[in-house]
Amino acid sequence: MRGLLLAAMTEAALVTWRDVSSAKVLPMPSDYAAVAIFYGGLGLLPAQAEGFASLVGWGMVLATFLKLWDPTNPTKLVLPGKSPQVSGGVQTAGANAAASSATAVGTPAASTFATRNPAGGNYPVKAQ
Q1: Is residue 49 part of a domain?
Q2: Which of 4, 12, 22, 69 has the fewest CB atoms below 10 angstroms from its CB?
Q3: CA distance 15 to 31
Q4: DSSP assignment of the chain
Q5: Cβ atoms < 10 Å from Cβ of 36
Q6: What is the pLDDT of residue 27?
Q7: pLDDT above 80 for 78
Q8: Is residue 80, in this structure, part of any structural domain at all?
C-alpha cells in the first residue's frame, strides 16, 4: 500500500499547488476530504488488488497533473468583492437579455419583493 499512500500524498500536493498557483488561496477542506475518501476507498480493496489500486491511484494523479480531471471545478471560492463565476452551459448572443426577461422554473407566480442581504444582493421573498 506504499504506492497508494504516495499517490494520495502526491494528489493532495497537486491539489494544493493548483489552487495556490492559480487562485492564490489554499484549497477548500472538502478538496482534501475528497482525496482522502477516494484513496481511502482504494485502500479498502483486498491485498490481492494492491497493484490495481496503486495503478488507479497513480492514474488519477496523472489525470490531475495533465488537467484532464479537475475535482474542484464545480466548487469555486468567491473572494470578497468579486462575483461568483459559475459556468453551467454555453451562452449565446442575446442569452443574457432573454434570461433576464424570462422567469425561472419553479419561480412562484405570486408577486415578490426583495430584501437586501449582507452581500449587497437581494433575497426574493414571496408576498403574503
Answers
A1: yes
A2: 22
A3: 8
A4: -HHHHHHHHHHHHHHHHHHHHHHSSPPPHHHHHHHHHHHHHHHTS-GGGHHHHHHHHHHHHHHHHTTS--TTSS-----TTS------S---TTHHHHHHHSPPTT--SS-EEEEE-TTSSEEEEE--
A5: 14
A6: 86
A7: no
A8: no
64, 39 Cβ separation under 8 angstroms: no
Determine contact, residues 49/3, Cβ cutoff 8 Å.
no
pLDDT at 103: 47
How many domains, in total, are found in the chain? 1
Q: Quote the pLDDT of residue 25.
A: 86
pTM: 0.56
Q: pLDDT: is 35 or 73 the higher one?
A: 35
Strand partners, 116: 122
44: in domain? yes
